[in-house]
Structures are given as structure tokens and as C-alpha cells.
Amino acid sequence: MEPSKDRIRGMTLRQLISVELEKAPMTARELSKTVRISEKEAVSHLEHVAKSLHPPRRLIIEPPFCHKCGFVFSERRRYTSPGRCPRCRHEGIQPPVFRIDSG
Q: CA triplet 66, 48, 13: central angle to 5 degrees?
């Protein structure tokens, strides 16, 4: 369901982020371009969006992984992308992907 333009104008930035993540999974960079804020600001808002969701809705984070050796950062709790792989030291890291699951 696509929200109307009038409804979008009345939404807070975090509500808009929630709507976008319910539509499709996105990285912080993609989300920042969609809602026209900086990537750093998008990451900050994502942390608050995750805390404010009521069950059964929840923020799902697909962990980042190394393009070279395939190492998955499954234990990482930060919302930002790591700088390099701890296994092979490669800097080509796929950033985490965020989506909201409605249960």
C-alpha cells in the first residue's frame, strides 16, 4: 500500500524510514538516498526505529559479508558497515541490509 503524498508530508522521518523498509530491503546508503538524508543520519535513525517497533513488527538485519572470502559478520551488532574483513583484510565488504518484517 503506497501512502499518499499528503500522508507522507505529515510523517516524521522515522515513520517514513519504517514505511520504506516495509516496502523493500535497503542498505543505509540506499535508505539515505530515498529519504534524502546523510548515510550517518540514516544509521542513527535506524537504531531508534528498531527500538520503537511493536511486535510482531521487527527490524531484520542481514549481516555484512566479505566479497573476497565470504566471511559473514553474524555477531556484529553495529548498524554500520565494517571497514575490512578480519579474516583476509579485504576492504570489499557488502554493507548490512535492513528490512521490517511484519510478522
A: 100
